[in-house]
Amino acid sequence: MATGRTHRPATRSRGIPEATVARLPLYLRALTALSERSVPTVSSEELAAAAGVNSAKLRKDFSYLGSYGTRGVGYDVEYLVYQISRELGLTQDWPVVIVGIGNLGAALANYGGFASRGFRVAALIDADPAMAGKPVAGIAVQHTDELEKIITDNGVSIGVIATPAGAAQQVCDRLVAAGVTSILNFAPTVLSVPEGVDVRKVDLSIELQILAFHEQRKAGEEASSQDAAQPVTPPVRPAPADDSDRKGPDGDVPAVMPA
Amino acid sequence: MATGRTHRPATRSRGIPEATVARLPLYLRALTALSERSVPTVSSEELAAAAGVNSAKLRKDFSYLGSYGTRGVGYDVEYLVYQISRELGLTQDWPVVIVGIGNLGAALANYGGFASRGFRVAALIDADPAMAGKPVAGIAVQHTDELEKIITDNGVSIGVIATPAGAAQQVCDRLVAAGVTSILNFAPTVLSVPEGVDVRKVDLSIELQILAFHEQRKAGEEASSQDAAQPVTPPVRPAPADDSDRKGPDGDVPAVMPA
DNA sequence: CAATGTGAACTATTTCACAGCG
DNA sequence: CGCTGTGAAATAGTTCACATTG
């Protein structure tokens, strides 16, 4: 350390903060809806409401892209759709492969929003020989053996992994070796990839667990202590010298419960 | 402003930062894997590597839960599994309903990770009368008419929306009215919910677009300008007085490009 | 004069670096 | 002596509030 720049800056991309990038698709979707209703212009207030953010944030976000609004008027819908699309790289075609055509993979292949903006399902790949040749969403599934060739031939740079967790890292490695540099991972595993490869994950059970956390809190606000049964293994302190040494998160209240 | 506390603090939950909460499921998964391999203890370094974060962050995260480690040794795997499970509310049973049993809904219903930790699919609900009674993942699909009754009878507080975008808000409203206070939304729409209801969204096309953004940047680093064809509508400036007024994001360089 | 664009203030999150404990 | 737990520093992200402008 101490060498000035750390391992990887990686946070801002081209001056555009990551948090902003993550919201651009949201704005784009709202704008597309307006465009379809032939709305010519929107104010930051209106668009922000449609995208579910507040207007100051939206204006700040847009300010990173440039000055695309008109003071006193708002933003030209069509123009902004184009600008954001371009910024996101959606004015070009992205061939995508989906690996793992189980329930989820098939659902993804059938998902309309896939094809809509710039993305095109170039191939469906599965390890099961029995799947090979079967059409899913109008595309014949190909065997994993073909993976490298498919990637190369189609110039695929984005791969979607919808395999079981056990196969994900291996598939990932092969995708990366074949030239894929962006991966969307639906398998419940942490993928390790070389520098320069982006991974985003979509994880149902993580999302549910986060909801459960907040849900539990809500319940706890009404009835202070625990309520439901505890069907899970009881808490056994590993091997402390004493017994009354657990330090709670707030302050230093010992193991004794007040209520 | 000036009134001290703003509209809603909402950020920290019970002293635990939201960012930390979002990582707890990751730690839990890594710990569970260690537990299955009968590993008794882990250091923050090892666990962090398994979870794909850095060790300082992990230790800080755990510090919000309490002091559950042993200096010089590390963390007791079993004990930590329990503590995190409890913190996340996974020591209780969460009945969940899935609304919209299309490709995606079926995939979710079949997803093993669902049932694994604390979550139980209480019902599958679909608006298509033809689906009613059909078994998906071993559970008979019920019609939307039953929604309210199902929620009430099963004490469901978490709902998963896997309907088409057009139906999502309506379904959401009904879920909330029936008592659901946490929603996991797979439909590509912004849901509006009353205060006190949590919504998390999982959105394939947003994730892809974020990847495309970074992918485009990578390509741009090698060949400076654009490369592929532009099959989308050209950029037409709405109605400015002049023509050379676009202000780029960086500094105040006019429309003229140097290279 | 309504609505953008943006410095400045504030809040959240990450990272550093090291004291302190088992 | 190795590893946790944590203040303090650094970075990132959000919100305020208002000058500016079409």
Compose a concise summary of this entry.
The structure is a homodimer of 259-residue chains. By secondary structure, chain A is an alpha/beta fold. The first copy, chain A, has helices spanning 18-36, 44-51, 55-65, 77-88, 103-110, 112-116, 147-154, 165-178, 204-222; strands at residues 41-42, 69-70, 74-76, 94-99, 119-126, 135-136, 139-143, 158-161, 182-185, 198-201.
Question: How do the helices and strands line up, and which of them pair or pack?
Answer:
The structure is a homodimer of 259-residue chains.
Chain A: H1 18-36, E1 41-42, H2 44-51, H3 55-65, E2 69-70, E3 74-76, H4 77-88, E4 94-99, H5 103-110, H6 112-116, E5 119-126, E6 135-136, E7 139-143, H7 147-154, E8 158-161, H8 165-178, E9 182-185, E10 198-201, H9 204-222
Parallel strand pairs in A: 4-5, 4-8, 5-7, 8-9, 9-10
Antiparallel strand pairs in A: 1-3, 2-3, 6-7
Helix pairs in contact in A: 1-2, 1-3, 1-4, 2-3, 7-8
Chain B binds a DNA duplex (22 and 22 nucleotides) through helix 1, helix 3 and strand 2.
What does this protein structure show overall?
Two copies of one chain form a homodimer. Chain A has 259 residues and is an alpha/beta fold. Chain A has two domains: 9-87, Winged helix-like DNA-binding domain superfamily/Winged helix DNA-binding domain (Arc Repressor Mutant, subunit A, Orthogonal Bundle), CATH 1.10.10.10; 94-206, NAD(P)-binding Rossmann-like Domain (Rossmann fold). Helix content of chain A is 40%, strand content 15%. In chain A, 40% of the residues are buried. The interface between A and B is large, with 97 and 96 residues. Chain B binds a DNA duplex (22 and 22 nucleotides) through residues 1, 6, 11-12, 17-20, 43-45, 54-57, 59-60, 62-63, 67, 69-75, 240-241.
